[in-house]
Amino acid sequence: MKLFPQSGGVRALWEAVLTADAVVFAWLGQAGFAVRAAGQRLLIDPYLSDHLARKYAGKELPHIRLMPSPVDASALRNLDLVLCSHQHSDHMDPVALPELARNNPHCRFMVPRAEREHALGIGLEASRLIPVNAGESVRVSESLEIRVIASGHEMLQTNTRGEHHFLGFILRAGNITLYHSGDCVVYEGLAQRLREERVDVALLPVNGRDPTLTARGVAGNMSFAEARDLCAAAGISLLVPHHFGMFAFNTADPAELRQQIADTVVPRCVLPEVDKYYRIAAGQSG
Fold this sequence. Notes:
The protein is of the alpha/beta class.
């Protein structure tokens, strides 16, 4: 499995002329990605506003962006589907999502069933929600299926109905399978599940965990080493790290990530850049 970078970021990705079987993505910062697959335009966990900077202004942990949003939510059209892994605002943006809904009347929003009421509370219409839980799958089109699995934002959490608050998404498009974990640590059984799904490319958070932040209610994720080892155990050939470079109090050092990537043989790792988009190709070299 190989990644072929192209210049231009999400705007160029949105306008690119692609073949019907192409799987292409652009990083939006934090855990956000724009994806085009099987003729569909999708966003995963897009944080495109400054909502958190305003919410935490003057507080102990200011959420000032270290990078601007690569695209304004009002600029995106022809959007088919938005996937939100959980209700935290840098994944279910309460400013950007209603804007995307207004400008894309046919777009639907896949959210954890455990967070359906929260999605309604930020202004999304019930008729446009696709509430899901771990273990379910959704056939988006003839060529694109999304399988939903549990994620653990430091731990697996369910409500009284057994519905998971944190989810990951496995996108199966033709001969390419892409996994986005949302916010997640490595939990028992995850590697085996991903191996069974024959995942090719994993988009995984690498900002790690900090007991001080955890005590303040800021849950962590896997480290780069844990993400790398998960991919190796699951037979995933390509790792794309994310969840860094957005908030100063909760990030991995990009320079350290580049060094760790340089020292990694398996899996192949590519550190995403917001001014590029990437075409995934199976069985090719170069």
